[in-house]
Every structure is written in C-alpha cells, then in structure tokens.
Amino acid sequence: MDSTRNQEILNEIYAWEAGLQEDHRSDFIRTFNKWLNNKMENIPESAKKLFLETFDKSLFYLHSFIQNTQIQQDARNQILLSARALNQDIKTFEDLQSLSLDQLHYISDLQTSKHRLYSLMQGGLTGTGGLLLAGVDVPAQTVLNLRAVQMVSMCYGFEVNTPYEMMTSLKVYHASLMPKHLKYKQWLSLKEELNENEYSRYFYEGIEELADEASLEFLAKQIVKLSAISLVKKKTLQGIPLLSIVIGASMNYRLTRQVTDFANNYYQYRLILKTSELDQLHNY
Description:
- The protein has one domain.
- The chain is built from eleven helices and no strands.
- The protein has helices spanning 3-20, 27-41, 45-67, 70-86, 101-127, 131-135, 137-155, 163-177, 180-192, 213-232, 242-283.
- Helix 1 (3-20) crosses helix 11 (242-283), helix 5 runs antiparallel to helix 11 (242-283) and helix 8 (163-177) packs across helix 11.
C-alpha cells in the first residue's frame, strides 16, 4: 500500500475523530436529551436489565442469521468479483488487503450505497403509515445496518465468521448508533482494543456485553420518530402522506449513512494500523 496516501487517509480519520469530540447540540436537542434521560431514570432497573439482555441476544442471533443467508453468500462473491476486477490475483478476503485503501473504499461504497438505498425505501414505506410497517421499522433497520457493517468489514478484508470479528463488527455497529456526543467514548474503546497483535486474533477476549443505557436512548428516539410519522401521516397530498414519507425515508437514510461512515473510518484505521505493524515486523 502507498504509505503516503495511507498517511493522508489517517489524517482525515484524525480530523473526523476530532469532530466527534465537539458537542454541537442545539438547545432543543439538549433539552430533549435531558427530558429523555429523566424519563429513562423512571424505568425500573429490572426492566432495563431485561431489555439490555434481550438486545444483546437479538444482535447475536441476527448476526448468525445474516451470515447464513444466501443473500450474504452472494454478497461475499460479489465483493471478491469486484476485487478481482482490480487485481486478478485475489483469491481470498485476506488478499483484499493487498489493494490500496482507495480501492477498498470504492468496493465498500458499492456495497453500502445499496444499503443506504434500501434504508431510504424502507423508511419511505414506514412513512406511508400502518401499524404493521411501523412495527417492523426498528427490526428492519437493525438488520439493514448490521449487515452494512458486515459488508464494510469484508470489503476491507476482515471476515466476520470468527468470534473476534463477530464481536468487533457488533461493537462497531453499536458504537455507530450512538449520538455524536457519546460516540467519541465508543470510538476510543474500539481503538484501545487494537493492540500490536490484534490481526492474529481468533477468539474474542474482551467484554461481550454491548447494550447500555445509550441503547435505550436510541430506541426511545426511534419511538419518537414513529410517533412523529403517525402525527403527520394524516396530512396528505392527493391522498399520499408525503410529509410522513419524507420524514421516514430521510431519517432512516441518515441513520444508515451514519453507520456506514463510522464503519468505514474504523476499518480503514484498523487496516492502516495492521499494515504499519506488518511493515515494522518485516524491517526487523
């Protein structure tokens, strides 16, 4: 890989990281977050614990389910085909890491752009109203965005079928959902897990619990979104609830964009770190 270009990308990641430390929330958002925190404090601890445990289990089950679908297998083959168009010597996912970061980002963007489009369409359908569509909005978004993170991981040459890669992708997904003022802490936690020998790991040795009270905040915001859609869906244009469709589509698209941007920055950073460590080993 081009070390000069890698440094340029690393500098871009550092600039993005610095942006995570800035808290630009408006007074309205701060007031909403304070109100939300007060409401969550009234939730019994037993109910919180039950939700967090269920959330964790659901993510593990969904990860396994996605990995075993034919759609996922087709996507794996498509990633390899895209990579071979750039370098015919590529045989495995690990071989992808011989490509430049720009090439890998291009392949990743081909995959994630589809997920952003799916999210846009799914959000638009939610905006049309109906109890069934509203009920499947959060599960559908979870599957779409979790799969998007898995796609990004594979595009950078990190398979997600080992315990370590599975937990890492789930942690990246969870961190990407956090509001910006909480995301920096999650980013630092992910960076701390990348030690000198991380690229040789197979089993995951860190903390396996993912869900926390910030997960409750994320779910509460999704409920607020669905409530807003429900309130405005009666305002129609020629019988079409255009405003609620726009709200659903734009918010879901924005969430998927947020998830995929975070995942791209993480896996780019990780690959740069791995490449620099391998170069140091070769120089000894």
